[in-house]
Amino acid sequence: MYHTALAHLFRSSVNEQEHAPIHPPFAGEETSMSTAAAPDLPADIAKAMRALEVRYGTPWSAPLPSWNDTLDTLLAHRSVRSYAHRPLPEGTLETLIAAAQSASTSSNLQTWSVVAIENPERKARLAELAGGQSHVREAPLFLVWLADLARLEAAGARSGASVEGLHYLETLVVGIIDAALAAQNAVVALESLGMSTVYIGGIRNRPEQVAAELGLPPRVLPVFGMCVGYPDETRPAEVKPRLPQAVVLHREQYDAPSQAAAITQYDEIMSGFQTSQGLSAAGWTSRSLARWRSRESLHGRDRLREALNALGFELR
Ligand SMILES: Cc1cc2nc3c(=O)[nH]c(=O)nc-3n(C[C@H](O)[C@H](O)[C@H](O)COP(=O)(O)O)c2cc1C
């Protein structure tokens, strides 16, 4: 009964969007568990409540300070793995890079770069290196986001400056954070324009081969890939519910004991979501733990330290 109500919620959530921004429809929708279905709510608030309800798979109870198109875009995010045969508009790449470069960057060091790949043969090779992910091949644009310590190293060599700090783990962490912040800005920009993405962590399965394919210099790490394209409307992706805020939001101090009950509730929500997607209703906990079950379940990334050393990172 609970799952049936949720399945209806997930089915009704998406994919009648025009282009930007995408958001779950609200008007006229009612579900048995919907706070957003109250008829006297202003339309924008009702839409917001609906988006929050779909994001968590439960009614939303906190007050909303206000709402806007940016929040609409963020709340409606979903990874897309099926792309339309539709070229990206001219200037898409440059626009998403401008959005990416607008992200904060540690000390303005800008220790990231990105390689844009449209060549079908290269995409096919990268798809295989990433564990045979067909969407890498099918997306019109594939981006590989890089933690790039080589640029500043080269600047140091040109000016004769010491770059000892380059060799510390901290510096690589900075580069990885910078790359991730830039990439997520690109995701939001693309989704605001009606396009879709999926991150590809599989690019770290075989980092040395990816580095060779992309001609990377030493001390440049492929952090993750990203497929970019218009979503295939015949195979729509749905908004995937997230952990309850009670699990991730800690007030003043970290609260471990109260997490288990909320995670049990989320397992039920995810089972309902998985059922609505035609997947086995495993829930969140068991699916997630399977990713950590063994060394083999890391798909080659268990040797990341060795790969990093081979790519020129000393990790002092
Ligand atoms: C760093 C990172 C790496 C990911 N790697 C992959 C991947 O290799 N293949 C894939 O299909 N999805 C990948 N994903 C997508 C996640 O599976 C997805 O974001 C998650 O299941 C939540 O779904 P949603 O993005 O639709 O909300 C990755 C996401 C992130 C953030």
TrEMBL record:
Domain Nitroreductase: 76-230
Gene3D superfamilies named among the record's database cross-references: NADH Oxidase (3.40.109.10)
Entry keywords, A to Z: Flavoprotein, FMN, Oxidoreductase
Cited Pfam families: Nitroreductase
Domain of life: Bacteria
Molecular function terms from GO: oxidoreductase activity
Assigned protein family: Belongs to the flavin oxidoreductase frp family.
Name listed for the protein in its UniProt record: Nitroreductase
Organism listed in the record: Paraburkholderia lycopersici
